[in-house]
Amino acid sequence: ASAEKGGYEHFMIKEIHEQPKAIKDTMTSRIMMDVDEVKLDDIKLTKEDLESISKIYIVACGTAYHAGIVGKYVIERLAKIPVEVDVASEFRYRNPLINKNTLMIVVSQSGETADTLAALRLAKEHGARVIAITNVVGSSVAREADDVLYTWAGPEIAVASTKAYVTQLIAMYIIALYLGRLNGNLSIEEFRLIRDEMLKLPEKAEYLLNQKETIQKFAATHYVHKDMFYIGRGLDFAVALEGALKIKEISYIHAEAYAAGELKHGPIALIDKGVPVIALATQEELFEKMLSNIKEVVARGAHVISFAFEGNDDISKVSDAVVYLPKTLSILAPVLSVIPLQLLAYYTAVERGCDVDKPRNLAKSVTVE
Ligand code: G6P
């Protein structure tokens, strides 16, 4: 069993370490150095097709849904098409407004999640065009969608998704760049900037994986807590949701993710001495706002671990611990910032003696409603 795990103690930590390769593989032959376009031979959507699209729905469950939230920010920013994100079990029962001018993007690691598949079928019945992002070749979702963009994460065994999530993010960037270039809303200069930074992500992810000490220490000190709060703004909020899900799934700690600007509207009432707060502050234009939010929780006794890009030293003055991420574009930050959050969940679960790869009550793939 240890051989299968490549010398790692659990599949989850093995898969966390496979992320640099998974990111790279998912970009391969689609985004390339010095090539001024996204190559998507697997997607047949034409410029004319895109002109008729007035709205995009991204529909998924669990971790894939969190990748969808990042997708919304990114597609709206780069392709300027309105995007709505929904969990599949809500989407399918709320009479969504779908017609032939709708583009649906379904995201599913397994390609077999019952609600996601049902949402896809519903969209197709109403004439929508469907692109699937999935990790399993020939899965139901892949077979039934009009177009498929495979993530090349390789088989994911641990119930808690890690490498599939980062490749779903990469797929979202690829689609956003593709759509933005196709409809002319993304300039070639901006395309090149993002492309070049994306190509550096595998190396930066690798570097981050070697910076585990701060995380391990925070986990070793705080694993006893019953509640944790994850806060962030913009894309950091999307990542906060995923970080909180990871810790819930495998360590059974109650964790809530909040858009930091919403703190005052409820959760701040729960901040008391010693409560761990995980603060993401990678979005440049929101950095000062995050600093104020961190100060607000610190003033109430929270123990804060922050995540920010290298060079933002101010954050260490208001945090108990800081993990510095190698610099990249704010828009690409989720690919890096999620890694230490996965590690935090992992080390916390290990400290608590939990069954990391097979958490209670959860299944890798939910094929019944
Ligand atoms: C289950 C898994 C999650 C996963 C979700 C959606 O809940 O435990 O890790 O995110 O299903 O799965 P899918 O295969 O559709 O991405």
Automatic annotation (TrEMBL):
Q: Which residues form the SIS domain?
A: 46-185, 214-359
Localization, per the record, is: Cytoplasm
Q: Which domain of life is it from?
A: Bacteria
UniProt-annotated catalytic positions: K364 (for fru-6p isomerization activity)
Q: Which GO terms describe its molecular function?
A: carbohydrate derivative binding; glutamine-fructose-6-phosphate transaminase (isomerizing) activity
| Reaction(s) this enzyme catalyzes, per UniProt | D-fructose 6-phosphate + L-glutamine = D-glucosamine 6-phosphate + L-glutamate
Q: What is its main location?
A: cytoplasm
Gene Ontology, cellular component aspect: cytosol
Query: GO BP, one example?
Result: UDP-N-acetylglucosamine metabolic process
What are the EC numbers?
Answer: 2.6.1.16
Q: Which UniProt keywords apply?
A: Aminotransferase, Cytoplasm, Glutamine amidotransferase, Repeat, Transferase
Give the quaternary structure.
Homodimer.
The job of this chain, per UniProt, is described as: Catalyzes the first step in hexosamine metabolism, converting fructose-6P into glucosamine-6P using glutamine as a nitrogen source.
Q: What is this protein called?
A: Glutamine--fructose-6-phosphate aminotransferase [isomerizing]
Q: Which organism is it from?
A: Caloramator fervidus
Question: Gene name on record?
Answer: glmS
